[in-house]
Amino acid sequence: MALFMDQLLARRLERAEGAVGTTFTAVRQRFTPEVDATWQELDGTYAIFDGVGSPFTQSFGLGLFAPVTHASLARLEAFFEDRGAPAVHEVSPLAGIATFGLLVERGYQPVELGSVLVQALDNRAPSPSTTLRARRLEDREHAAWIDASTKGWSDEPGMEAIVRSIAEAAARNQAMAHFLVERDGVMIATGSMGIHEGVALLAGASTIPAGRGMGAQGVLLAARLDEAHRRGCEVAMMVATPGSTSQRNAERRGFQVAYTRTKWQRSPALH
Description:
Blueprint: H1 7-31, E1 38-42, E2 45-49, E3 58-60, H2 70-81, E4 87-91, H3 97-105, E5 109-120, E6 133-136, H4 142-152, H5 160-172, E7 176-183, E8 186-196, E9 199-207, H6 216-230, E10 235-240, H7 245-252, E11 256-266
């Protein structure tokens, strides 16, 4: 399957990530109702509130499905700011330069970049030859999986509580499939996968410090790609920091950069 890095593909990828993101709100509503998690779709843009300070609290797809105007941005800003959170939009360059211009006019600043990587699943690389074992998570292993996921992000200062909260929500999210990699019976890497309309979103991958440098991420990627193909997906996507180890691991497994997104934030205190 040939992939063309155009607006049609961007729409498909951004809608998939946004749709998978909305499944977390149902988990929050059931298990942590005090967060008041919710989401709305506004002109094709998914706006998700997962609590103040959560990396899930943002929008996806801005400018890809409808022209962005001051009025449409005001509605999105109200969604976030009425809940005490800054308005955050992660925007594809295929949304167009006019979208970026309006964001600047309204006081937004770029705060993060993300490489959106994509792969056609009929062209995926064969699984690597290794003694490491990747498999689906079993219900009895949720606590250990959450611990391993948290340890995998332990080198991010001040992120432990947020990462644990996200891992707990992910483990409870039945719309996601969860995977692990074992070495000699010890869980060393974890990751998840969500599916929307033939697109598999690979997310949440991490390796505990003691398990790094063994190829665990390649094994984890291969297992999720194989599962996505078995479930009828045509395309897989993931997001990584530009130039990061995660991006290189993905490129080794056949992913290519579709585009680089910019995350824009507007502080309600300044307006």
